[in-house]
Specification:
By secondary structure, this protein is mostly beta strands. It has no helices and eight strands.
Length: 122
């Protein structure tokens, strides 16, 4: 990784949730994972317990990662500073990543099952 200085002058992040990250500086590796079941039911109480094992989306094997692209390059940083004047982020969610700096490897996975149970369907 590079040894460089990062200058952040004004950062405004409204929301950060569910396996996400906001990172300043260089990073060797990022692995973000999120598994979410969202049940929306019109009744006052959820009628039954739900579990990740109940849904095939959480059991499937993920396809293998694509191989990294190798680019031979060299850099000469006369002024090795990352200077961000202003950043406004409304939201980072579900294994998302905001990275200010260098990163060698990013791997992210997000699996979401949303269930809506309406009174007219019951």
């Amino acid at each position: 990784m590079n040894n460089r200085m990062v200058e952040m002058h004004n950062i405004d992040v409204i929301a950060l949730s569910i396996g996400s990250g906001f990172l300043i500086g260089d990073l060797s590796r990022s692995n973000s994972h999120a598994r979410v079941i969202a049940v929306q039911e019109e009744t006052r109480a959820i009628s039954e317990k739900v579990d990740f094992d109940d849904f095939s989306i959480f059991q499937r094997e993920l396809p293998p990662s694509r191989p990294s692209i190798v680019i031979n390059s060299s850099f000469c940083n006369h002024h090795p500073v990352i200077d961000v004047q202003s950043m406004h982020v409304k939201g980072i969610s579900t294994a998302g990543l905001i990275q200010v700096g260098g990163v060698d490897h990013i791997e992210g996975e997000s699996r979401l099952k949303h269930i809506r149970i309406l009174n007219e369907e019951q």
